[in-house]
Amino acid sequence: MKGAEGGRGGIGGAGDPVTGGSNPVAGGSDPVTGGSNPVTGDSNPVAGGSIPVFLYHAVMEDPPDWIAEFTVTPKVFAAHLDAVVDSGRTPVTVSALAAHLAGRAPLPARPVLLTFDDGFADLPGPTAEALAGRGLAATAYLTTGAITPGGRSLLPPAPMMTLDQAAGLEQYGMEVGSHTVTHAQLDTLPPRDLARELRDSRAVLEDALGHGIRHLAYPHGYNSGRVRRMAAAAGYETATAVRHALSSDRDERYRIARLIVRQSHTVADVEDWLAGRGARIAPYRDSAKTVGWRWYRRARAVVRGPVFAG
């Protein structure tokens, strides 16, 4: 999405391609700060070191203009899923990746993750069915203000699922995580508002599902050291960003890299990512452009207030 952390352009602001910066893959990284903290005791390293984590939004034929760039049709989505199956990679949930990054459990030799943000109307129906029909695990991050009747969200109008459909996602074998309440740019919020976004979205989902919610996706991928620390303090076990990069077995638990799927991406692009090609491998340092864009958005938020991260 436009201006996305690590993205290359789309809705809502200037693009921010990830350029430059060192790639401190050797030795791993601290899950919150990005400092040195290698995952030890891993007897099953991921082959090639790269883990594609796909980020989807809507799967529909006629999306609203604001999300069209990040929408794929059901036919294209089916072709993507078939490519995943044909790749021989093993789909896993974010919980499985979290256990591996924390040094608690190994991953399959060639894992892949499928994630879905926001909670569009297709998710609990044809999208979940397409995944389940192929036996593919996935994780859905829901924006609670957008799927709760009478809720408040910064997302523009679009066909959305409802909160009472969240349990149905789990019946299809999908894992559910939080995508905050309003979809604000978290790294521009004052501490009290940030804490509320992290806490309230989790509480709503836990009440609806009857169990804990352990995983978070930053709206638009926007995060900072402060946001990551507060996510950890709020009880989340992981948080996913965007970065439009391949993750790895040494990625940061509170800034897991994802590949944002756009309407313009082809099946060949998906096949390249599944083969570990066509994108950088995280972790790596933020570029000067990313840092500068973050400071610009913070200054703008002081003047304008909360802004839709999209």
TrEMBL record:
Gly residues composition-biased segments: 1-15
Chief place where the protein resides: secreted
Keywords for the protein's UniProt record, in alphabetical order: Signal
Pfam family, one: Polysacc_deac_1
CDD domains: CE4_NodB_like_5s_6s (cd10918)
Keyword Hydrolase: no
Localization per record: Secreted
Extent of Polar residues compositional bias: 34-43
Any one biological process term the GO annotation gives: carbohydrate metabolic process
Location of the NodB homology domain: 110-310
An annotated GO cellular component: extracellular region
Residue span of region Disordered: 1-44
SUPFAM superfamilies cross-referenced by the UniProt entry: Glycoside hydrolase/deacetylase
InterPro entries linked: Glyco_hydro/deAcase_b/a-brl (IPR011330), NODB_dom (IPR002509), Polysacch_Deacetylase (IPR051398)
GO molecular function, one term: hydrolase activity, acting on carbon-nitrogen (but not peptide) bonds
Protein's UniProt keywords contain Transcription regulation: no
Protein name: NodB homology domain-containing protein
Organism classification: Bacteria, Bacillati, Actinomycetota, Actinomycetes, Kitasatosporales
